[in-house]
């Protein structure tokens, strides 16, 4: 496994402790997003006492990632995206911000695809009313943010396949922006195939406009965003550990670490 190393400083100062975990959220105008991410990081701290855990946003919310990294000085840090697939933010925005900071950083892989992510998706569907015995006429739309990056679609398709295996029903990826099919289009497609019960699984880290709009398109049940589910905290630490353990590589030579 490889991991992107982005060094914004030539300093070799070390803190003597583990690299800080900097969770990188997208940011949202919905106030529930910040409170949800903050609560998720509290779960992470409870699982790994002594690990420095910080939050930085790409946009819309404070603290911005650039400010968080500036506060860390030239210490080591792992930037762990709270994003569920690869894309422009993971490949360009986060490494670019890191390169402009004095911190010595590595960029971890996004949270998906991964079996722990599927654990959280499955649990949220059960909470929303998914029956213990799956109906034969059921299907799921996996509602995601969307990206023009083809790697994002590949990751989302893999997550959908993992969830389909878990549930034993078709799972069709759909997108809230920048890609197709949209969530309403995916619902119509599954309905046309004879699926009378179509659920929408929210593949979003926190509440926001995309999650709200996707849920509104559900003809049956819609799950809540993944938020503070315990598997999300475990997955964030898994990505951190992978990045710490992986050999470094030249910045820009490859994308962030993948499992």
Main traits of this protein?
6-stranded mixed beta sheet; 3-stranded parallel beta sheet; single chain; 259 residues; alpha/beta
SSE layout:
Elements: E1 3-7, E2 20-25, H1 31-47, E3 53-57, H2 65-72, E4 76-81, H3 88-99, E5 104-107, H4 115-128, E6 138-144, H5 150-167, E7 171-175, H6 183-192, E8 197-202, H7 209-216, H8 230-245, E9 248-249
Parallel strand pairs: 1-9, 2-3, 2-4, 4-5, 6-7, 6-8
Antiparallel strand pairs: 1-5
- Taken as a percent bin, the fraction of beta residues is 15-25%
> How much helix, percentage-wise, in residues?
25-40%
Tally of individual helices: 8
Class inferred from helices and paired strands:
alpha/beta
Low-confidence stretches: 7-15, 249-259
User: Which oligomeric state applies?
Assistant: single chain
| C-alpha-based Rg, rounded | 18 Å
Strand order of the largest sheet: 3-2-4-5-1-9
Gap from first CA to last CA? 7 Å
Overview of this protein structure:
The protein has 259 residues and is of the alpha/beta class. Residues 7-15 and 249-259 have low confidence and may be disordered. α4 packs across α5 and α4 packs antiparallel against α8. The protein starts with a strand and ends in a 10-residue tail after the last strand. Helix content is 40%, strand content 18%.
How do you describe this structure in short?
The chain is an alpha/beta fold and 259 residues long.
């Amino acid at each position: 496994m490889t991991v992107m190393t982005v060094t914004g400083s030539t300093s070799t100062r070390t803190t003597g402790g583990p690299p800080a975990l900097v969770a990188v959220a997208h940011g949202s105008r919905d106030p529930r997003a910040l409170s949800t991410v903050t609560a998720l990081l509290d779960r992470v701290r409870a699982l790994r006492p002594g690990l420095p855990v910080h939050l930085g946003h790409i946009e819309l919310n404070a603290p911005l990632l650039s400010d968080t990294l500036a506060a860390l000085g030239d210490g080591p840090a792992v930037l762990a995206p709270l994003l569920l697939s690869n894309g422009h933010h993971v490949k360009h925005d986060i490494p670019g911000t890191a390169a402009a900071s004095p911190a010595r950083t590595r960029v971890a892989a996004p949270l998906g695809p991964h079996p722990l992510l599927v654990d959280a998706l499955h649990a949220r569907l059960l909470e929303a009313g998914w029956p213990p015995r799956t109906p034969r006429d059921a299907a799921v739309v996996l509602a995601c943010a969307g990206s023009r990056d083809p790697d994002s679609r590949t990751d989302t398709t893999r997550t959908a396949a993992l969830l389909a295996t878990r549930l034993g029903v078709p799972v069709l990826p759909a997108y809230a922006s920048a890609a197709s099919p949209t969530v309403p289009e995916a619902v119509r497609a599954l309905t046309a195939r004879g699926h009378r019960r179509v659920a929408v699984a929210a593949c979003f880290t926190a509440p926001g406009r995309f999650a709200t709009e996707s849920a509104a398109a559900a003809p049956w049940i819609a799950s809540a965003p993944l938020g503070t589910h315990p598997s999300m905290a475990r997955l964030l630490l898994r990505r951190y550990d992978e990045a710490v353990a992986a050999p470094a590589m030249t910045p820009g030579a490859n994308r962030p670490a993948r499992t």
